[in-house]
Amino acid sequence: MRHFVRSVQPGDFAVIFCAQRTTDDGDGYNLMGDRMMELAQTQPGYVGVESARGADGFGITVSYWESEEAIGDWKANAEHQIAQQLGREKWYSSFELRVCRVERSYGTGGNG
Predict the structure, then answer these.
(1) I want to staple 49 with a disulfide (CB 3.0 to 4.6 A). Which of 63, 83, 89, 99 is the partner?
(2) Which domains does the chain have, with CATH numbers?
């Protein structure tokens, strides 16, 4: 399983989503998460995603995009809007979202 997005370039954008999960609807949440990953990959300007969640339900997902326009298009996607609404109403007790521009990107490129 690949863990790192290797194609992130300076000038790309990172959307950092930090959230505390509730215990509601684990199956529905996982199904929606899988669908959002599938759907994001079809969006123009999508670069990749990295995600981790702890046993306490706190998670961080970083998605990478070529432009702010691509991020806006993803945010406005009808299916993604449903997932956002369910997240606010049901799946997250709290969350923060940050959008950043990638200035540098380097590392070992490992799969670890």
Answers:
(1) 63
(2) 13-101 (3.30.70.100)
